[in-house]
Amino acid sequence: MINILIATEDKAWNAFVAGCPEATVFHCFNWAAALEKGAGHQPYFLSAMDDGEIVGVLPLCLMQSRLFGRFLVSLPHYLGGLCSSRPEATTALIEAACELARNLSVDTLELRGNSALPEAENKGFVLDRHKASYLVDLTPGEEELWKGLRKQTRNRIRKGQQSGCKFESGHHLLEEFWQIFSANMREIGSPTFAPGFFSSVLDAFGEDAEILLARQGKNAVAAKLVLRFRDTLTLLWGAALPQAKTEGANFFLTWEALRYALARGCHVLDQGRSTVGSGPYHFKSHWGGRELVHYWYIYRISGAVSDMRAESPRFSLARKIWRRLPLSATRVLGPWISRQIP
C-alpha cells in the first residue's frame, strides 16, 4: 500500500532521484532549501512510500502572493513535476497534492514537468504546453558539433571571439552575473530576482552549480547560471548586455557552455525553458538540439489559466512601464515582485 509523507530528509529522497531514469535536476531535494531561503517559499516535498521505500516524489512549494494569490507549484520559477517508479505512486501523489492544495486553501495547483500525466487530466487539470527547452546531444564531440552548427551560428561565435570575449567560471562571479541579468530583465519588461535567490541556488547545489561568464576587457558582458545533474548540464538563467548581443557575446558564451559541459563529461546540454515562439526559444533552436515541450498541468480555482501568464495581454501595460523605470528602481522593486510570480 502506498503512503504519502512530507519529506524532511534529503538523503533517501536524493538516492531515489539519482536512480530514477526520468528524474531531472529539478527533482533534487536541494530545491527545498534554495526556494525557502532564497525566495521565502514553504516547501512541501511529497514522497510516496511502500514498505519504507520511496517509490515516487513530487516536490511542491507554497507561494503566498499579495499580488496574485496563493499557489502550490512544482516548482515555482522553473520546473519540477512528478517522478515515480510505479503507476499507483503517480496516482497517490496527484491525489495527495490535490488534498494538500485544498487544505492550504490555494487558488492554483500547478504541476510542471517533462512527461504526460493522464491521471492529472482525469482530475480536471488543464494541460498547458507553452514552454519548451532544447536538448543538445553532446556525444559526437566538439569537432562534430561545431561542423553541425549553421554557418550563421558559427560566424556569430567567431564574432564574439574576435570582439575579445574571454570565458570565466566560478561562484565568485555572482554579482557580475546579477548586474547583467537584472539589466536584461528590465529591458524585456520583467522583474528580476534578488542576488540572494541565486546565491541560495549556488549554495544548495555546491560544486554542481556554476556561474559562466563572458568578459570583454574588464567588463562582464554575458553570464549564465548552470546546474549539473548526472550527465546533463542545464542552463537555468542567463543574459547578455544589449550591445554585447550584437557583438556575438551570447553566441560565444553558449558555445563555451557547451565546451564546459563536454569537459565535465556531460552527454546532454539542456538549454533551459523558454516560451514557445519567443526570441530566446528561436535562439536556442540554432544549436542542433531536440525540442522538448513541457507538460504543465494546472488546476485554477478562479479565473482563466492564461490570465496568470507573463505573456497575457493583461500585463502588457505593466511590461511597458517597467521598461521605462530607472534600472536602480527595478533592482529594488523587482525581487519583491518576482518571488510572487510562479
Describe the structure.
- It is a single chain.
- With 342 residues, the protein is an alpha+beta fold.
- It folds into 2 domains: 3-124, Aminopeptidase (3-Layer(aba) Sandwich); 133-292, Aminopeptidase.
- It is built from 13 helices and 16 strands.
- The protein has helices at 10-19, 30-39, 87-103, 118-122, 142-148, 151-162, 174-187, 195-205, 242-246, 249-263, 279-284, 316-324, 327-338, and strands spanning 3-6, 42-50, 53-65, 69-74, 83-84, 108-113, 126-128, 131-137, 165-169, 209-216, 219-229, 232-240, 268-270, 274-275, 290-293, 295-300.
- Strands 1, 2, 3, 4, 5, 6, 7 and 16 form an 8-stranded mixed β-sheet that branches.
- A hairpin with a 2-residue loop joins β11 (219-229) and β12.
- α2 (30-39) runs antiparallel to α8 and α6 packs across α10 (249-263).
- The longest helix is centred in the N-terminal third of the chain and has 17 residues, at 87-103.
- The radius of gyration is 20 Å and the shape is globular.
- It starts with a strand and ends with a helix.
- The mean pLDDT is 92.
